[in-house]
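Shipment paperwork, digital attachment
Item: protein structure file
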Amino acid sequence: MIEFLLEATLYLGMALLAVPLAIRLGLGSVLGYLIAGVLIGPVFGVVDDMTEIQHVAEFGVVMMLFLIGLELEPRVLWDMRDRLIGLGGLQVGISTAAIAGGAFWLGQPWPTSVAIGLIFALSSTAIVVQTLSEKGLMGTQGGRSAFSVLLTQDIAVIPMLAFLPLLALAPTVIGNPDGSISRPSLETADAGHHSVSLVEGLPAWGVTLVTLAAIVGIILVGMFLMRPIYRFIAATGLRELNTALALFIVVGIATLMYLVGLSPALGAFLAGVVLANSEFRHELESDIEPFKGLLLGLFFLTVGAGINVAVFLGNPIAILALTIGLITLKGAILFGLATVFRLRGRARWLVTLSLAQAGEFGFVLISVALQTSVLGQSLSQLLLLIIALSMVLTPFLFIVFERISRRAPSPDAPEPDEINAQGRIIIAGVGRFGQTVNRMVQSAGFQTTVLDHNLETIQLMRKFGFKGFFGDPTRPDLLHAAGLNDAKILVVALDDAKAALTLVTYARRVRPDLHIVARARDRVAAYELFSAGADDIVREMFDSSLRAGRYVLENMGVADFDAYEIEKNFFRHDRHALRELAALWEPDVPIAENEAYVARAKELRNDLETQIVAGLQKKDDAA
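Attachment content:
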């Protein structure tokens, strides 16, 4: 027990060190976890046996698929059927055949080649979904297509597990004389024990019935029993019981799936889909999310720590060549399929580069193939290493995608509108922020020219009688067509902070006399916009926060007028402080390490408190 705790402490400590550094360098959290695992295992050799940690970490993948299922209603899955069956099915089939052909060409027997093809046809759901979510790519066309392929692969694991024993090279009992079937354990061959299975010793039709019963049971329990159970638990008012119920659902389903020989992660996904329409979906998400993030990070750590240095050092050039060859072959297949399915530009590259690696379910298939003598021990170690290395390289593939996507905008995007109206006021970006500005200005009788890169938003505006033009507001030609040369005011209300900075910089350079009102996400963004030349900067949450603070003061007994005065004085002081601190802000120096900035911020805060107290005292004296 103490060894397990020490190992867990070491893993968590290394993650706290490596992950923030990786994020700071722009490499993403997944690569940070993988690097931490490599340092713990192959580099320093601190941990040798990771079996216990791996069992815990694998629940991160299970919880991730459960949360994904909660986001997908059955109707959404039905709408994805073309991608699931077409793009996903073809990827699995063609990749299996191509990789098996390559293995056969390299001298492997055909049963072993087919097994290798099945193992490497799968991609890493854990890494890809986590990275897509972090980078905000899940809702894009490429992100949805990549997820469809991943979902198809996860479903395909079930028939793969059933098919692998049929490829056994050595005499292996997969069918008993009485017609019953013995399922292989999903433990490694040297584990020395077998898992308990509900289907052990059952005939083939019995295995099928038990499997179907388990799936139907999950669906029925999710549809009819979970609501009353959840209401009963929620009535206690104890948050920890809600969390316990959420964990019970995930762990219970994973256990049931394991007992019937199915993928625990797939079972959790099915349960999530069933519960997607329930009223407590968001509660489940909030309860599971912290555990998912931690365990998924631990899973990535174990992948990095599991890299066998001895095998790698035995023939590093050949292993790296095989890994890169695998990524290249899968990437070529994905690129071709993405083209066939009419994915273009960024979407095509995202599918190609995000799914080119091998995946965590390959570990499961290798363990089954090893037990059934489809694979030998030395070959299994080689395949495990290739899977781990390909997963380690995945974050770098996303970096390549980001660089390509900057130069390759999607050619299938709609053409921008022809702008046939110009106004003295240009509003760039018409989301929630820009819409309010536009409505208020137009209600006062002024004409505006609205630009936005979101076609759906522009079309929605038009339905309500507001005129707007579709196009990228950062494009100089569109800005000049909208009347930039004669405009008096430019309102920059873009969500993308980098795009807003680019727009302000360009507008100030070509129109030094233009008055620019810009939206900022936070103080740092405000400083950047000041440096770029914006005149008035509105932090998107600042004014609403002031109003909320005034309500707090009023409900604490402060007179309405006094609360209003405090709000007004705070606003004036903060605007003044923002401009002063902007002059002291240095882009390359963290704010906490900028001594002049910190010292002046403290002085300004003391000045604010003094002003407020003095103002209230003056009012009391006058009364």
